[in-house]
Amino acid sequence: MEWLASVGASIYIPVGHSPDYDLIAELDGKLVRVQAKTSAYFRGDRWEVRVCTRGGNQSWSGVAKKLDASRCDYAFVLVGDGRRWFIPADALGGGSLIRLGGPKYVQFEVARGRPLPRADAPEGPLYNRRSNARGDVRVVKGDGL
């Protein structure tokens, strides 16, 4: 939310369960649905980010729900080192994973934020480049967005 507010957006949080987006932002007079994602997984000089849901806190049916432009307008992504992207959902390609840090999404990178807390830091186990951690949305859905 920090970056969106810094560019003048009004931010609205849905009340109750919202499976397709985490917040609504008013940008340039238009309401957009935003899905927040984080990743602490760095491999091959890229940040790997899952852009699908596999059940969350409900029992998984075995079907991954991919981020879809018909249900969400943008993905906001925060990665371990604090880099951030605001990517139109239709630019994601409909897969379950994106790799950030290379040329493909460079035009959607926005101002860097605070890094995710490291696993070996007192703040908690959210960021560890040596692990196979896939990210934790608590940081983005809290004060990191």
Brief rundown of the structure:
The protein is mainly beta.
Top keywords for this entry?
9% helix, 2 helices, Trna Endonuclease, Chain: A, domain 1, single chain, 3-stranded antiparallel sheet, 11 strands, 6-stranded mixed sheet, 145 residues, mainly beta
Shape: globular
Strand content: 25-35%
Gyration radius, to the nearest Å? Answer: 15 Å
Number of strands: 11
N- and C-termini, Cα separation: 4 Å
What structural class should be given to the helix and strand makeup? mainly beta
Helix content: under 10%
User: Strand order of the main beta sheet, please?
Assistant: 1-2-3-8-9-11
Task: Write the element-wise H/E pattern from the N-terminal end onward.
Answer: HEEEEEEEEEEEH
Structure description:
- It is built from two helices and eleven strands, in the order H-E-E-E-E-E-E-E-E-E-E-E-H.
- 9% of the residues lie in helices and 32% in strands.
- Mean pLDDT is 81; it is low at 123-135.
- The longest helix has 8 residues, at 137-144.
- The protein is mostly beta strands and 145 residues long.
- The relative contact order is 0.22.
- The protein has one domain (2-144): Trna Endonuclease, Chain: A, domain 1 (3-Layer(aba) Sandwich), CATH 3.40.1350.10.
